[in-house]
Each structure stands twice: as structure tokens, then as C-alpha cells.
């Protein structure tokens, strides 16, 4: 006997239970009629979208979910539907996976392992499940698990002890660099230690800062990957299982198509495109406007914007001042032409002069300092927000993780905007991504990538006047932000200058207040600024050990 399983790698809108339910019904019927699937498996919390956060606390949640379940049961038949949703049982909320067939709920599983780290807050909302759920599907004993369950040995072992011959694992597993390989190694371990094939179904899409890259896949009972769905592509991807009468592994997947792995730069770039596209489309912005400086950060951000929503919905604005070089003007114009976007040049000198004249009495007796530089950046921010308000375009900020880590950004200036694709991208990776994007088509002038970065807020200014080299800075930042290493531990593991390390760490700590006011942006590392890293703005922690 053969069982065909369709992996539903889809994008849901958080909170839109009605339309998410319609999508489940539509895709179930499509899988049944067009792909001849016996079973369709959706990701974790499909009906609410993921993560629903405090929408789970809304009083009408239970009523809406019960209505959605009834709708699916009443409108879909002749295919087993395995779908994730939150459900109130005996007054307590659980993260559930249900198996629906011919108008009945054949089984319902409650997630046992609730992650409460990094971007996950499951224990804030859910109670832990305790038992396995085994459902008979065409003679095969199928066990259910949800996301974090697969990271621990107990739930799958429990399902095996209950008679499972196949595991369906529903996921909402967000992207970070190298996570594709981590998932595969994890399933190899769980499958081989239990002698069970596993179907791993993941979301594809984005929600605020989180990106889900899909990549649903199947391993056999020995942990060998036999089916790999594409990354960053929505769709239904099928795998066939044979059910034998007498063999060691009675339920076994038949080999299918295996999509090739993605290189780091390709996966990160696509995560940025996906995150921005979903944020724009789900929030119904008409388009994007950004300040194009002639530098590498804004050039890369512009390329991502065009790849996300198309050149016809993107406007780039060059806002030159006295210190803006002719090279920057030329490069910005070339970038805009290469990408085919609307391009405006709006000099800010008259506005900055007006500010300075108005503030002259207040500044009397004070020497020139960063105040004047910040006025330039804030004038640009005001200009972009005015265009945003008038045209309904979202301002895309262009600052990278290295800059935001040490506060090398102007509050209410270049930090103005609704979203940032570089928020979790260190500067050294910005260079790599820019070279990568040019392999897909030349859109970033080479000298933009190779010349020394500069904010151009003062004469002959370059970033390394104020910061260590980005090669050094990014190494220190990774160790401090992503590995939680102390200053002394960083010094003990590398030949860095002591003063530099202490200065960088102090800048990171001092600028927490800026990051709290920064726009959200794509998460690509295990420790991004936002949901991942929550430090108090006011604290007396001493840097050192």
C-alpha cells in the first residue's frame, strides 16, 4: 500500500483566522484532487499564523478556533488534514495538532516541549502536553509532534513506544544562518535513534522580524534525507510512503526530488527579500522610499527593495549636503538607473541652514560638534518621512548591525523608518552580500563596494575615524552579542587591543536606548537585536569578567 503525503509549505497572515482557514480548505482540496494526496500536513499554528503573540490572550480566540475547525471538518473530505492551531481544553490553552478526516477529529496532540528562549515565548501562553497521539492512516500508525518536540528525545521515543511507525512534525522554525544544516542533523539523529521516518513541514514566509524559509523535508528510518522541498518557495510538495506487511521498517518513504542546498549569501539575501516583501504586502504599503547616499548600505538595501516588490514601487532619494562627494552623487544615480527606480535629488542645505539660523541663539558660546552632523541626518529623516506620509510609501532604513551595535546612527535621523533589511547584518557581511547580488546582475557599482565607508557628515570623514576596522569590530561584536563573552574572555581568545575591546563593549551597552527605538528588521542570526536580545537600558553592570 502507498500513502501520499503533501507537505503544505505556505505563508499565513498572523491573526487572520478566517482567511487562513480558507487557505487550509483550498489547499487540502487541491492536494486531494490535483496531487492525489492521501494526507496533507500544515505547519504549526497554521490557523492563527505564527507567532500570534498576545493575540492568544484575546477572549474570542477559543470561539474563532472552534468555528474554524468546524468549517474545515464540514467542507473537506476524502483526505486526512493534519493542521496546527491553539485550543482551549478544560480551561487551559494548548498548542495543538489535529488530524481531521470525514468530518471527525481522529486525534489531537498537544505540544510537549515549549521553548522559552531566543524569539520564543511558548510558556507565556501554553500548557505542556503530556501524551503521545497515534492515528491510523490507511493502516499505518502515525505519530504527531510539533516543532520543539523534535529537539528533545522524549516525545519521539514516547510516540514510538505508543506504536508510531511514522512521525509528522509540524513546524514554525525561523531562519538563521546555518539553521538548514542544523535541522537536517537533528532529524538524522531522531530518526536513527528511534528507527522511524520523519516528515518535517515548515512555514514559508515572514512575520515582522522572523523569516521562515520553508525547506520542508523527509528522512527515512535511518536518518537519510529522501525528499527536500525548495527553500523560499510556497507550494505543496509530495512524498510517497510504502506500507509493507512484514519488514523491519514497515512504513518507508520512497525517494523523491531533493532541492539543492543554498550558500550562506544566497540564503541570507533571500531571507532579506522575503522579510521585506511580506512586511510591505501584509501591511499594505503602496511602496518603499529610501535615502540613497551612494554608499554600500543604501545600495544593498535598494537592491533588496527592488527584488522584493519591483522597481515600479520603489523611490530612491539622494539628499546631498556640502560634504557629499561627487563620487557619491554619481554612484547613487548609477545605482538608481541600473535598478530602474524613480530617483530624486533633493538638496538639504537650505533646510539645514534654516535650522542652524533658528538655533543660533541656543548654540551661541558652544563649539561645533556632532550636533551639526546630526542635524544633517535628521533633516534627511524629516524629508523621507514627509514623502512617506504624502505617498503612502514606507521608509526603508539602511543601517547595518555593526553600526546599530555601537550607536553609529542618528536617532530620528538615519534611523527613521518602518523596516530595516540590514538590521541583523554585520558590515563585513554587507560587503559579501553586495558582491553576491552583483553575480545575479550588476546593480551595485564596484567602487561603492571597495571604497572606504563614510557617513559624509564632515569633511573627509570615514567610518574608521570613529570605529575600529570592520573586520576587528565585527569579530568583537559577534563574541559579545551572539556568544555573551565578557571583555576579558574576548581579550583572552584574540590579540585585540584592550582599550578597543572595552570601548566597543561600552558603546554597545550605552546604545541600548537607541536600539529600542529602531525599526524592526529581518533576523538572520541566532542573536539579533529585537526579540532575541533584551537588555535593560538603565543598569549598573560593570564590563570585565
Q: Could you tell me the mean pLDDT?
A: 93
* Strand order across the largest sheet: 5-4-3-2-1-14-15
Q: Give me the number of helical elements.
A: 17
Low-confidence stretches: none
CATH topology of the largest domain: Nitrilase/N-carbamoyl-D-aminoacid amidohydrolase
Could you state the CATH homologous superfamily of the largest domain?
A: Carbon-nitrogen hydrolase
* Number of E-type strands: 20
The number of domains is 2
**Secondary-structure class:** alpha/beta
List keywords for this structure.
Nitrilase/N-carbamoyl-D-aminoacid amidohydrolase; 17 helices; 7-stranded mixed sheet; 2 domains; Rossmann fold; 545 residues; alpha/beta
Q: Mind explaining what this structure looks like?
A:
The structure is a single chain. With 545 residues, the protein is an alpha/beta fold. The protein has 2 domains: 261 residues, 4-Layer Sandwich (Nitrilase/N-carbamoyl-D-aminoacid amidohydrolase), CATH 3.60.110.10; 199 residues, 3-Layer(aba) Sandwich (Rossmann fold), CATH 3.40.50.620. 38% of the residues lie in helices and 19% in strands. It is built from 17 helices and 20 strands. The strands form 4 sheets. It has a 7-stranded mixed beta sheet, covered by helices on one side.
Topology, pairings included?
Elements: E1 2-9, H1 17-34, E2 39-41, H2 61-75, E3 80-89, E4 92-101, E5 104-110, H3 122-125, E6 134-137, E7 140-146, H4 153-161, E8 166-170, H5 179-194, E9 198-201, E10 204-207, E11 210-213, E12 217-219, E13 225-228, E14 235-243, E15 251-253, H6 264-282, E16 287-291, H7 296-309, E17 314-318, H8 326-339, E18 342-345, H9 349-363, H10 370-391, E19 393-397, H11 401-406, E20 419-420, H12 427-440, H13 446-450, H14 470-482, H15 487-493, H16 498-510, H17 512-516
EC number: 6.3.5.1
Protein name: Glutamine-dependent NAD(+) synthetase
Catalytic activity: deamido-NAD(+) + L-glutamine + ATP + H2O = L-glutamate + AMP + diphosphate + NAD(+) + H(+)
Amino acid at each position: 500500500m502507498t500513502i501520499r503525503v503533501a507537505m503544505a509549505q505556505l505563508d499565513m497572515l498572523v491573526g487572520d483566522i478566517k482567511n487562513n482557514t480558507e487557505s487550509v480548505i483550498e489547499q487540502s482540496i487541491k492536494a486531494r484532487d490535483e496531487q492525489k494526496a492521501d494526507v496533507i500536513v500544515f505547519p504549526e499554528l497554521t490557523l492563527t499564523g505564527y507567532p500570534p503573540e498576545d493575540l492568544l490572550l484575546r477572549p474570542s480566540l477559543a470561539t474563532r478556533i472552534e468555528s474554524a475547525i468546524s468549517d474545515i471538518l464540514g467542507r473537506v473530505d476524502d483526505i486526512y488534514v493534519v493542521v496546527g492551531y491553539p485550543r482551549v481544553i478544560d480551561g487551559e490553552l494548548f498548542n495543538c495538532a489535529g488530524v481531521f478526516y470525514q468530518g471527525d477529529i481522529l486525534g489531537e496532540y498537544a505540544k510537549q516541549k515549549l521553548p522559552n528562549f531566543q524569539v520564543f515565548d511558548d510558556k507565556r501562553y501554553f500548557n505542556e502536553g503530556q501524551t503521545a497521539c497515534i492515528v491510523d492512516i490507511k493502516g499505518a500508525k502515525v505519530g504527531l509532534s510539533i516543532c520543539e518536540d523534535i529537539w528533545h528525545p522524549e516525545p519521539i521515543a514516547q510516540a514510538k513506544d505508543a506504536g508510531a511507525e511514522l512521525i509528522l512534525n509540524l513546524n514554525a522554525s525561523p531562519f538563521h544562518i546555518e539553521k538548514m544544516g542544523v535541522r537536517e542533523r537533528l532529524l538524522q539523529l531522531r530518526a536513527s535513534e528511534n528507527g522511524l521516518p520523519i516528515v518535517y513541514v515548515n512555514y514559508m514566509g515572514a512575520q515582522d522580524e522572523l523569516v521562515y524559509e520553508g525547506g520542508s523535508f523527509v528522512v527515512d528510518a535511518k536518518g537519510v534525507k529522501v525528499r527536500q522541498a525548495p527553500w523560499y518557495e510556497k507550494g505543496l510538495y509530495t512524498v510517497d510512503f510504502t506500507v509493507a506487511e512484514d519488514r523491519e521498517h514497515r512504513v518507508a518513504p520512497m525517494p523523491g526530488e531533493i532541492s539543492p542546498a543554498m550558500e550562506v549569501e544566497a540564503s541570507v539575501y533571500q531571507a532579506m527579500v522575503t522579510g521585506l516583501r511580506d512586511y510591505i504586502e501584509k501591511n499594505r504599503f503602496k511602496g518603499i522610499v529610501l535615502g540613497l547616499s551612494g554608499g554600500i548600505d543604501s545600495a544593498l538595501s535598494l537592491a533588496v527593495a527592488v527584488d522584493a516588490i519591483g522597481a515600479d514601487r520603489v523611490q530612491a532619494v539622494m539628499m546631498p549636503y556640502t560634504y557629499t562627494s561627487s563620487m557619491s552623487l554619481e554612484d547613487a544615480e548609477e545605482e538608481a538607473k541600473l535598478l530602474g527606480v524613480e530617483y530624486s535629488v533633493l538638496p538639504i542645505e537650505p533646510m539645514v541652514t534654516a535650522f542652524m539660523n533658528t538655533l543660533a541663539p541656543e548654540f551661541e558660546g558652544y563649539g561645533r560638534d556632532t550636533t551639526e552632523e546630526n542635524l544633517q541626518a535628521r533633516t534627511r529623516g524629516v524629508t523621507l518621512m514627509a514623502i512617506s506620509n504624502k505617498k503612502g510609501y514606507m521608509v526603508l532604513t539602511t543601517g547595518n548591525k555593526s553600526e546599530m551595535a555601537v550607536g553609529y546612527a542618528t536617532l530620528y535621523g538615519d534611523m527613521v523608518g518602518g523596516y530595516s533589511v540590514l538590521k541583523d547584518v554585520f558590515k563585513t557581511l554587507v560587503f559579501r552580500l553586495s558582491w553576491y547580488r552583483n553575480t545575479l546582475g550588476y546593480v551595485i557599482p564596484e567602487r561603492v563596494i571597495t571604497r572606504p565607508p563614510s557617513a559624509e557628515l564632515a569633511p573627509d570623514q570615514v567610518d574608521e575615524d570613529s570605529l575600529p576596522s570592520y573586520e576587528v569590530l565585527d569579530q568583537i561584536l559577534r563574541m559579545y552579542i551572539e556568544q555573551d563573552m565578557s571583555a576579558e574572555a574576548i581579550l583572552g581568545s584574540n590579540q585585540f587591543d584592550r582599550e578597543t575591546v572595552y570601548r566597543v563593549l561600552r558603546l554597545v551597552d550605552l546604545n541600548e536606548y537607541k536600539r529600542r527605538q529602531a525599526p524592526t528588521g529581518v533576523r538572520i542570526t541566532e542573536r539579533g537585536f529585537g526579540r532575541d536580545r533584551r537588555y535593560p537600558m538603565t543598569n549598573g553592570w560593570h564590563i570585565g569578567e
